[in-house]
Design brief:
Layout: H1 3-19, H2 25-38, H3 43-49, H4 53-70, H5 81-96, H6 102-113, H7 121-131, H8 140-156
Helix pairs in contact: 1-2, 1-5, 2-3, 2-4, 3-4, 5-6, 5-8, 6-7, 6-8, 7-8
Length: about 170
């Protein structure tokens, strides 16, 4: 993966996490700066990257969708199911990169989605398992391993739905 591809994925992840309330607008601005440094360059990306922390909360909601569109990336509407799924995949990538422990990852997914989001149902169940470890025969390492497997599944899950097929021929 090239640095521009990695930067595009990181920007997309930051956008999804921001639109779901997981990170601050200033974190999106930082990701835009990183994307510019990595070689991505569009007018709205430059404007977004130039925002100050004081401006970020006001400007990111207007600039981010346009910047993503220019780059061919997706802006998920706030609180949409697709956005929740994208944010879950972004958190999975963060856990796999060592930015979150398996326990922190399951807790955040469970806290945000409960058992309501089909894509993350098993993650929520594993969060429940952490809570009852002392009463069962599983160890933290066993649950951590299963969480890591689930995080890999989420991270590999397609980020864009497949094109609909035309069944009327």
């Amino acid at each position: 993966m090239t640095s521009t591809e990695a930067a595009a994925i990181a920007l997309q992840d930051h956008a999804a996490l921001w639109s779901m309330g997981e990170i601050r607008a200033s974190d999106v601005v930082n990701a835009a700066c990183d994307a510019l440094v990595a070689g991505l360059d569009t007018t709205n990306l430059r404007i977004l990257a130039a925002c100050t922390r004081a401006e970020a909360d006001y400007d990111v909601p207007h600039l981010l969708p346009e910047a993503l569109d220019e780059l061919g990336l997706i802006f998920y509407p706030v609180a949409s199911e697709a956005g929740h799924e994208a944010a879950a995949r972004a958190l999975a990538r963060r856990m796999l990169a060592g930015e979150l422990t398996p326990r922190e990852f399951t807790f955040r997914i469970h806290q945000r989605h409960g058992h309501e989001l089909p894509l993350t149902e098993r993650i929520a169940e594993l969060d429940d398992e952490y809570d009852i470890l002392e009463y069962g025969d599983r160890t933290v390492d066993q649950v951590d391993a299963e969480v890591t497997t689930e995080a890999r599944r989420l991270a590999a899950h397609p980020t864009v739905p497949a094109e609909p097929t035309d069944s009327c021929s």
